[in-house]
């Protein structure tokens, strides 16, 4: 049956614990069967006071995604045509569908790491009513290729210690693009926002890419605060071949340019230095990494440098490609 007032949407299951819902956890799916059972098991067993609604929005999966979702009678499933999906548009629609005071977003491959994930993700709202959006942390999967594993760890460690909560806001210390980009950085792979903000003054922008980066910028520009909650962790990383990684970096770089975020074209000299530096650091970390077997370490010692080359090849492709 169709959700009232929502063209093309089909609701196949709906049940909520009570009339005053604390939070709606929105899971966006498209052929997400690989990690979906683990994700839904984790989301539906969270240790938190208050009613939690779980809303899955699927945009045309052809694998076992829908079969998996129907095993959870308390999960609300809404199906939309793939042509109706948009990174910002669908998240905005989810906020309008949501019944919770807060809306937490997960991608279909981001699995909460523990039963207090949701508690930690929502805690900053309680601590400061000026906080309107919260970003949780990400833990790379053990088998993730070293370059990406170390990047994920480095990015989130840079936002603050794991035992604290970090606030980000606009002030006169934002005196360079680098500082501004760091302050406004946002990832909605694992995030939450006040529903009345999403449906009111600061919705997501309907763009083809980097909707989360623009949302972070818009929050800070509006004089609001966002927070980083490191204990609200999910296990998340992508398994990508060399070609897929190259194409992804090219698409991401071009996408940033499409939404007005400047990207410098790295010179070949800069690329050479960055590759050499990155490979050296990864090699040391790889040798110390207890998550890889000895055989896998030998494999990555040979292959990981190629990922560094492909990374910068993709960045240069995206930075020099003509804008659509």
From TrEMBL:
- For this UniProt record, give its keywords in alphabetical order, as a comma-separated list: Glycosyltransferase, Transferase
Glycosyltransferase 2-like domain mapped to chain residues: 24-137
Q: Write down what this protein is called.
A: Rhamnosyltransferase
Pfam families reported for this sequence: Glycos_transf_2 (PF00535)
Return the EC number: 2.4.-.-
Q: Which GO terms describe its molecular function?
A: glycosyltransferase activity
Keyword flag Transferase: yes
Instruction: Please name the InterPro entries in this protein's record.
Output: Glyco_trans_2-like, Glycosyltransf_2, Nucleotide-diphossugar_trans
Any one of the GO BP annotations: single-species biofilm formation
């Amino acid at each position: 049956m169709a959700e009232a007032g929502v063209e093309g949407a089909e609701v196949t299951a709906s049940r909520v614990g009570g009339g005053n819902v604390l939070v709606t956890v929105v899971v966006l799916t498209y052929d997400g069967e690989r990690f979906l059972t683990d994700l839904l098991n984790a989301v539906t067993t969270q240790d938190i006071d208050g009613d939690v609604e779980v809303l899955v929005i699927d945009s045309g999966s052809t694998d076992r995604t829908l079969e998996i979702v129907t095993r959870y009678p308390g999960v609300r499933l809404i199906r939309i045509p793939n042509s109706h999906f948009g990174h910002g548009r669908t998240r905005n629609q989810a906020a309008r569908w949501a019944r919770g005071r807060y809306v937490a977003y997960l991608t279909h491959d981001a699995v909460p790491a523990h039963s207090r994930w949701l508690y930690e993700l929502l805690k900053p709202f309680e601590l400061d009513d000026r906080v309107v959006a919260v970003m949780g942390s990400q833990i790379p999967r053990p088998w993730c290729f070293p370059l990406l594993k170390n990047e994920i760890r480095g990015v989130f460690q840079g936002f603050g210690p794991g035992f604290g909560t970090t606030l980000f806001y606009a002030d006169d210390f934002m005196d360079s693009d680098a500082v501004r980009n760091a302050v406004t950085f946002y990832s909605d792979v694992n995030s939450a926002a006040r529903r009345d903000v999403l449906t009111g003054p600061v919705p997501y922008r309907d763009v083809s890419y980097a909707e989360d980066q623009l949302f972070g910028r818009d929050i800070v520009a509006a004089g609001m605060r966002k927070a980083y909650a490191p204990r609200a962790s999910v296990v998340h990383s992508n398994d990508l071949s060399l070609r897929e990684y190259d194409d992804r970096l090219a698409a991401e770089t071009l996408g940033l340019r499409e939404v007005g975020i400047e990207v410098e074209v790295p010179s070949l000299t800069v690329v050479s230095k960055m590759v050499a530096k990155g490979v050296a650091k990864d090699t040391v970390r790889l040798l110390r990494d207890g998550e890889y077997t000895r055989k896998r370490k030998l494999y990555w010692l040979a292959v990981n440098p190629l990922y560094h080359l492909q990374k910068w090849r993709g960045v240069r492709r995206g930075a020099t490609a003509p804008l659509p």
